[in-house]
Specification:
By secondary structure, this protein is α+β, with helices and mostly antiparallel strands. It has one domain: 3-Layer(aba) Sandwich (L-fuculose-1-phosphate Aldolase). Strand 7 and strand 8 form a beta hairpin.
């Protein structure tokens, strides 16, 4: 589905499923996800060593293993490059604003991890601080990773991220973002706690009032992005550089 939806191109992306406490089933490297068959899949242990399969394991297996290590509740991981969300990642912008109620309930904020070279420890080092709290992460200049209790759930979170990125982009193009208020976000938090699928801490995005501005916290400070720059900070930096 990630290939049919245009979330990957050529041989991009990788998926995995935790089979049990010792084995992970993962897509192979250098293969189009729209052309795979069952026999192309590879089984590895939790150190990444291949146990079975005729192809080589994904070069980004370490990212999957990190998530399984840090999140015992997670059974599947999806990594893809959906165009709009990846555009935000390439622009250095997290999807961290409370614009859509369903996204707050499902994912909370979607932070931006620092850039790390794919297939190296740099990538896992960048993701490690965020994995315990979030179920979806933008990867700077790279793509998106989502994870859940099963493969369908992990994939659905990828769809949610890309859909939210499209909505956020339209709101930006219209020149106005009407953020949910603090009170509205608190109500959504209460709803989130009732959802069995909401296992991560997922700190909520900055709340706003209906004119789109962000209110001050009780100490007078302003909410910040979970990681990386906020959209406003990035725009200010670009203006200063001109």
């Amino acid at each position: 589905m990630i290939h049919e939806r245009g979330y990957v191109a050529a041989t991009d992306g990788n998926l995995s499923v935790r089979l049990d406490s010792h084995r992970v089933l993962v897509t192979p490297t250098s293969m189009c996800k729209g052309m795979m068959v069952t026999s192309d899949l590879v089984t590895v242990d939790l150190s990444g060593e291949k146990l079975s399969g005729r192809r080589n394991v994904s070069s980004e297996i370490a990212m999957h293993l990190l998530i399984y290590k840090l999140r015992p509740d997670i059974k599947a991981v999806v990594h893809a490059h959906p165009p709009t969300a990846t555009g935000y990642a390439a622009a250095g912008l997290p999807l961290n604003e409370a614009l859509i109620s369903e996204v707050v309930i499902c994912l909370g904020a979607i932070p931006l991890a620092k850039y790390g070279t794919p297939g190296t420890p740099e990538l896992t080092d960048a993701l490690e601080p965020l994995v315990p709290q979030y179920d979806a992460i933008l990867m700077s200049n790279h793509g998106v990773v989502t994870y859940g209790e099963d493969l369908l759930g992990a994939y659905m979170k990828m769809e949610t991220v890309e859909h939210f990125a499209k909505v956020a982009l339209v709101a930006h193009q219209l020149g106005r973002q009407q953020l949910l208020s603090h009170e509205e976000v608190e109500k959504l938090l209460a709803v989130r706690r009732k959802y069995a699928a909401a296992n991560s801490v997922a700190p909520m995005p900055p709340a706003g009032n209906h004119n789109g501005s962000r209110p001050a916290n009780g100490d007078g400070s302003r909410d910040q992005a979970p990681t990386g720059d906020t959209a406003g900070e990035a725009r200010s930096r670009r203006r200063s550089a001109r």
